[in-house]
TrEMBL record:
Name of protein: Xaa-Pro aminopeptidase
Enzyme Commission number(s) from the entry: 3.4.11.9
InterPro entries to which the protein is assigned, alphabetical: Aminopep_P_N, Creatin/AminoP/Spt16_N, Creatinase/aminopeptidase-like, Pept_M24, Peptidase_M24B_aminopep-P_CS, X-Pro_dipept-like
PANTHER family: XAA-PRO AMINOPEPTIDASE 3
Family: Belongs to the peptidase M24B family.
Length: 429
């Protein structure tokens, strides 16, 4: 791995918290992610199933985790199944976990090769009353491809039709949203790498560079510091491109007088940063650009203050909408008459700020959490307001990552340049 070994106590505690919520005499199974074909003889870079990683710390394909805390055979209460290496794999693919390494990484004592899974499962499954299986229940996702978890469910139901099947996802949703101290530190590391990449970009950007040249500077810094790579496909959107919310082409020339909207973050040890910034190509904002920039900045700062333990998602977004409305009126983009006549289902501010302000952050960039669950201590949330003005060829978005604590909010990106004057100063230094 590119990152140092994570203390196994994190994963041991995660498993303990998970199994405490199982019904009596229950067995739970988690599968690694699929390896997806990229072309005729290649696969995409492997990305571990976040739930399996959360519970085991194992970052390798073809892995299965079995948890059965009430198993009559103590040997099988926690079992990890791994792909067994051989001389061919050693030559062509390199490193794979040994049983000893997997034990050290996960804290699980019973490690077997994958070929033993069916026999071991069959020897204990009929003593269990309930079987917990996992699927991707992130409400931002709807599957059309029958991925590994879906195929496994079909196989289990066919083989063991009379068991009571349960969903692991509701338990994982409640657990993963609240970050431990170790998870916070890993996220801080991802944020620190992101900070250094941004400062590198500030010093690199000038009129005439291509968006993809900036992207190259970012990934250089990520990899140089031991990051896995991009947390998500980066957005390097100059000028009019900034009004395309998920612009990923990154192939245009950056022109003097335009603003570049960045949305990128480093992934480190499977944990993610998520940052947005907007900078002037030539190092100087025009007055109009700065006015819009500062309007977004004010919304951001006030939004951070609204986040806290017990706050409801919808209530928070309604308050942010009111703050944004005031800023848009001040900028002359909407009028008080527009606000008075607005459709409550689609407020006037949505014309220039059409996306949500925050999402949970963790092993997934849009991390698994309850949309209707109040914010809690230990949540890490993005705060990312934006104003997009197609008729002016201008889009501004600013985004930091905020940790909720018992003593107030902590900005994990507080050391990343944010004020317009600071950005100009670095670009012109």
């Amino acid at each position: 791995m590119k990152y140092p070994t994570i203390d196994q106590s994190l994963f041991t505690l995660n498993r303990k918290n998970f199994t405490k919520q199982l019904k009596n005499n229950s067995l739970a199974i988690f599968n690694s992610s699929d390896e997806f074909p990229r072309s005729g003889d290649q696969s995409f870079v492997f990305k571990q199933n976040p739930d399996l990683f959360y519970l085991s710390g194992i970052d390798q394909e073809q892995t299965i985790l079995l948890l059965y805390p009430d198993c009559p055979n103590p040997l099988y209460r926690e079992v990890l199944f791994l792909r067994q290496t051989n001389d061919y794999i050693k030559v062509w693919e390199g490193y794979k976990y040994t049983k000893e390494q997997a034990k050290a990484a996960s804290g699980i004592e019973s490690i077997y090769w994958l070929e033993d899974f069916d026999n071991i499962l069959h020897s204990i499954v009929n003593y269990a009353a309930h079987i917990y299986l996992n699927t991707n229940e992130n409400d931002r996702y709807a599957h059309e491809v029958p991925y590994r978890d879906i195929r496994f469910i079909e196989k289990m139901r066919a083989k063991y039709p009379l068991h009571h099947y349960e969903r692991s996802a509701p338990i994982m949703r409640s657990l993963r949203a609240v970050k431990s101290d170790v998870e916070v530190e890993l996220t801080k590391k991802a944020c620190a790498i992101t900070r250094d990449a941004f400062i590198r970009v500030l010093k690199f950007t000038k009129p005439g560079v291509k968006e993809y040249e900036i992207e190259a500077e970012i990934i250089h810094e990520f990899i140089r510091q031991g990051g896995t790579g991009h947390a998500y496909t980066p957005i390097i959107a100059s000028g009019h491109n900034a009004n395309i919310l998920h612009y990923n082409d990154n192939n245009q020339e950056c022109k003097s007088g335009d603003v570049i909207l960045f949305d990128f973050g480093a992934e480190y040890a499977n944990y993610n940063a998520d940052m947005s910034r907007s900078i002037p190509v030539n190092g100087h904002f025009t007055q109009r650009q700065k006015d819009v920039y500062n309007a977004v900045l004010q919304v951001m700062k006030q939004s951070v203050k609204l986040i806290g333990e017990g706050v409801l998602w919808n209530t928070y977004h309604e308050h942010v909408g009111k703050i944004m409305t005031e800023q848009l009126v001040n900028l002359g983009l909407i009028s008080l008459e527009d606000v008075k006549k607005q459709n409550p289902a689609y407020p006037a501010y949505k014309k220039y700020f059409m996306h949500g302000t925050s999402h949970h952050l963790g092993i997934d960039v849009h991390d698994f959490a309850g949309r209707y669950t109040p914010f809690a201590i230990g949540n890490i949330l993005t705060v990312e307001p934006g104003i997009y003005i197609p008729e002016e060829g201008l889009g501004i978005r600013l985004e930091n990552n905020i940790l909720i604590t018992a003593n107030g909010n902590v900005d994990l990106m507080a050391d990343i340049p944010l004020e317009a004057e600071e950005i100009e100063e670095i670009m012109n230094s």
